[in-house]
Design a protein that fits this description.
heterodimer; A: 173 residues; mainly alpha; Cytochrome Bc1 Complex, Chain D, domain 2; 0% strand; globular; B: 265 residues; 2 domains; two-stranded antiparallel sheet; 7 strands; 7% strand
């Protein structure tokens, strides 16, 4: 778990230092996910601040959520994706997620859901440590980049008005 | 990664062999009546395919295995049958007990390992590569001789530490996606990963003919599929980890009916 504030991230740096940002971009060009996780602070069950300086894009977020190779979300969650067949039923529906949870709460659940529930089956999409037997091809890589997390948060926040569609008893999962 | 990995993921979790049940309470100690084989999940077509020996594609492997059983092998030019006679008698119920303790090494040995031991020591033949067509055929033929009988892992105290090690693996989170076997196959058995039902992971039909593989395959191959699905580095074929896991899974499924050769999606 990156201890909040313990690691200086290229991401955060890049906001102030364009040269470093460029270097970081070049370094990561060959391996899109191999960035040091941006630092973040967990407070009151949420990560209030975005992981990047750029606001997330809901349209890109929707695509990530629906892509089984990328977000993997629909393997476990159902949601308002009429075009997607074979949605799983292991986790709460994504419908109404934006009503049930704040952006910061959504962000924490994506970054590291074990901070909400240590037993969760939700993979931590922005964590590279405390994992076992990760093959070299995936080692040190987060499931999503900081920018992709922000895209997904932005998209999920648009899923409103269906709070009652959720399954509160499975919320913790 | 992309298509291939996602295919692995989808199927990766799909069918370790077995069953539906309430979403919550699948445990190692579930009473026998609550345990379900992967057979119970399948559609009527796949069930019929397994039940009819003329349409079960795994039976082709069994026939190959029977031919191997009777064929002279190695420098001794002895067949399995030369020592063991009619497998229908001598191998009845044998596969249902494996893995068991190898008295020579005091470690667990699985059926494939025992067959290899026999080939190398008694027949003076080369060991059969794990997961090769011949190894699968012979284990399917020997396995068939336990079909319909209960899985009967030996209650041998010397196996306990190995079985415990297998249980520890079963409950250990692994891979980039950070799942344990138990989180899906105990806690969420009966649920759906994508469209695939999550079975209870009782290894009743191995080696199985998996339609997705278009071939026979061992429990270890199936376990490797699951590990790749969770983006974990799979254990090696024949590794102590897999044999310990198999010990635990068989213990967990003890008393369930052997289906070899099972058919699975």
């Amino acid at each position: 778990m990156p201890k909040p504030g313990s690691r200086r991230s290229r991401m955060m740096f890049s906001v102030d230092r364009p040269a470093l940002a460029l270097a970081s971009l070049l370094l990561s060009a060959g391996c899109a996910f191999a960035e040091d996780p941006a630092r973040y602070v967990i407070e009151n069950g949420a990560i209030a601040s975005p992981l990047t300086g750029q606001p997330g894009d809901p349209a890109r977020g929707r695509k990530i959520v629906a892509e089984r190779q990328k977000g993997l979300c629909l393997l476990c969650h159902q949601g308002p994706f009429p075009e997607e067949r074979f949605q799983g039923d292991l986790a709460p529906t994504l419908a109404g997620a934006g009503s049930r949870l704040s952006e910061g709460e959504l962000r924490l659940r994506l970054v590291d859901g074990t901070k909400v529930n240590p037993e969760t089956i939700m993979p931590s999409y922005y964590r590279t440590d405390h994992l076992q037997r990760v093959p070299p091809a995936f080692a040190g890589r987060t499931l999503l980049t900081a920018a992709e997390i922000e895209d997904v948060v932005a998209f999920l926040s648009t899923l409103r008005d269906e709070a009652k569609a959720g399954n509160p008893s499975k919320e913790a999962k | 990664m992309g298509g291939r990995a996602s295919a692995f993921l989808l199927v990766g979790f799909a069918a370790l062999g077995l069953g539906l049940a309430s979403l919550s309470a699948q445990t190692a100690d579930a009473p026998p009546s609550d345990r379900k084989s992967g057979f119970d999940y399948m559609g009527p077509d796949s069930q019929a395919m397994q039940k009819d020996d003329l349409s079960n594609p795994g039976m082709l492997g069994v026939l190959d295995g029977e031919a191997m059983w009777n064929a002279p092998a190695g420098t001794t030019q002895k067949s399995c049958a030369a020592c063991h006679g009619d497998a229908r008698e001598s191998m009845k119920g044998v596969a249902a007990k494996y893995p068991l303790l190898d008295e020579a090494t005091k470690t667990p040995i699985d059926l494939v390992g025992r067959i290899d031991q026999c080939r190398v020591d008694r027949q003076q033949a080369a060991a059969l590569p794990r997961e090769g067509r011949e190894s699968l055929a012979l284990t399917a033929f020997v396995g068939l001789q336990s079909r319909g009988m209960p899985l009967a892992p030996p209650d041998d105290a010397r196996l306990t530490p190995f079985r415990k090690a297998g249980e520890a693996l079963y409950t250990r989170r692994m891979g980039q996606l950070n799942f344990s076997c138990a989180q899906c196959h105990d806690d969420n058995a009966g649920g759906h990963l994508g469209s695939a039902p999550i079975p209870q992971a009782h290894p009743t039909g191995y080696p199985i003919y998996r339609l997705e593989w278009q071939s026979l395959g061992s429990l270890q191959r199936r376990l490797r599929n699951c590990m790749v699905g969770t983006r974990a580095e799979p254990f090696a074929y024949g590794s102590p980890e897999f044999i310990n896991l198999e010990l635990y899974l068989n213990w967990r499924a003890r008393g369930m009916e052997v289906e070899t050769p099972g058919v699975r999606p």
